[in-house]
Description:
Helices cover about 25% and strands about 25% of the residues. It is α+β, with helices and mostly antiparallel strands. Strands 2-3-1-4 form a four-stranded antiparallel sheet.
Amino acid sequence: MPEKFAFRMNLNPGQAAEYKRRHDEIWPELAALLRGAGISDYSIWLDEETHHLFAILTRADDHGMEALPANAVVRRWWDAMADIMETLPDNAPVQVPLAKMFHLQ
Length: 105
């Protein structure tokens, strides 16, 4: 059964419009890669007070998310986004997994 997966990232102050612009123009090859890894219904929300980005997605039972960091397209995306958000030394976004506390269906 598909599961919801949520995590938090940190946007640099003053970069909300640029972050949205870049995602409005997401590379087709990146979108295809995410779908191919079993990811669907993926959205990212911004808390404008804290600059926290809240992401939630649905992933298939047989998802391939663990392989994404090694993909050249993902690496290029991370490099392209590194100037506007908190990243690790390899430009991967700092991601904090979130624990589900409640769900109303």
